[in-house]
Specification:
340 residues, Rossmann fold, 3 domains
């Protein structure tokens, strides 16, 4: 039979209330702490987290719902969030909805059944009506969540977002400063918020340089859940339709891989025929020749801010306005941008 708090208290010579304080990381005297610690060890006492959750209305679990686990940013986000939750005695439940609205609904239902205290949600692609409704239902159930990487019209929630407009502005400005004027940017899958932000940064860079952006060189598409076949076909077609391009911005890890693949297929040499700026290519650059210039999303900072916002919402006794944190990205120079 498992030991109880009363058993630990009796063995340690303290009250059950003192043991409860110890287990909940509250202050007890150094003498009591030592006695309780020894009793816990001798009795092999294990905390019943489920029972404690029923008493305290908290599970000490956080959900992380990502849109695609094969995205390098998703795995980085998982690693960084888990590190921070361990430090505050929380566990992490990882779910992948794999770009499917139906699976998104199933994973939300699963996380609610597990009685998680809150959820970090990484959204990608088109935001369907079903996803929108699930977010509304979470809010109606007073389950805190933080959106990462994306916003949803009509949903007022805490969010930690890369500063997409400024990031693209910096990329395009860098290419313009190297003499490029015919700069293309590919955006996939289609997402209203991402496209709006990135297009704004793209056009502003041209305007600040006293030039006019050619919006024909902004290309977006949906992969129809058949990546990488569709992405290679779409990007290859775009590049063939615009042989005047001298530079390309690929704002996404998988998009960068697909773009490089398409350029190789067409026999266009990166760093000589086409200048290229990709995203999150740190690992790729170990094998790419030439190593590409890329934008590094700071997963560590995004994770830290998301956890801070979520824990604050969980512990808050009163409603508060949603908070938005924008995170700056860093350009890592490789050898794929040249001067013309």
């Amino acid at each position: 039979m498992s030991a109880t708090i009363s058993d630990v208290a009796k063995r340690a010579g303290v009250s059950p209330a003192t043991v409860s304080k110890y287990l909940n990381h509250k202050a007890v005297s150094s003498k009591s702490y030592a006695h309780i610690e020894q009793a816990v060890r001798e009795l092999n006492y294990q905390v019943n987290d489920f029972a404690r959750g029923l008493r305290t209305n908290t599970s000490k679990m956080i959900g992380l719902l990502v849109w695609s686990i094969d995205n390098i940013f998703s795995t980085s986000l998982f690693n960084e969030i888990e590190k921070r939750l361990i430090d505050i005695n929380y566990s992490l439940v990882l779910c992948n909805y794999n770009k499917s609205a139906a699976v998104f609904a199933e994973k939300i239902a699963f996380l609610r059944q597990r009685m998680v205290d809150g959820v970090v949600i990484q959204l990608g692609g088109r935001i369907s009506e079903q996803v929108y409704q699930e977010l509304c239902d979470l809010q109606a159930a007073h389950i805190p969540f933080v959106l990462v990487n994306n916003r949803v019209d009509g949903i007022e929630a805490d969010a930690v977002l890369p500063d997409d407009a400024q990031t693209i502005y910096d990329c395009v400005t860098h290419l313009l400063e190297h003499g490029h004027r015919k700069i293309g940017m590919i955006m996939a899958p289609r997402n209203a918020y991402k496209i709006q932000e990135r297009k704004a940064g793209f056009c502003r860079a041209y305007a600040d340089a006293g030039l006019t952006a050619d919006e024909e060189l902004l290309f977006s598409f949906d992969d129809e859940n058949r990546w990488p076949v569709v992405s290679k076909e779409k990007i290859t077609g775009f590049l063939q339709a615009h042989p005047e391009l001298t530079a390309l911005v690929l704002p996404g890890y998988r998009l960068t891989i697909a773009g490089i693949n398409a350029l190789h297929h067409l026999g266009r040499e990166i760093g000589k025929d086409v200048a290229l700026i990709g995203f999150d290519c740190g690992v790729l650059n170990d094998v790419l020749k030439p190593p590409v210039t890329y934008i590094q999303l700071p997963a560590e900072k995004i994770a830290a801010d998301a956890v801070e916002l979520l824990i604050d919402a969980i512990r808050s006794k009163e409603d508060r306005p949603p908070r938005l944190i924008r995170i700056s990205a860093q350009r890592i120079d490789g050898e794929s941008v040249f001067r013309i």
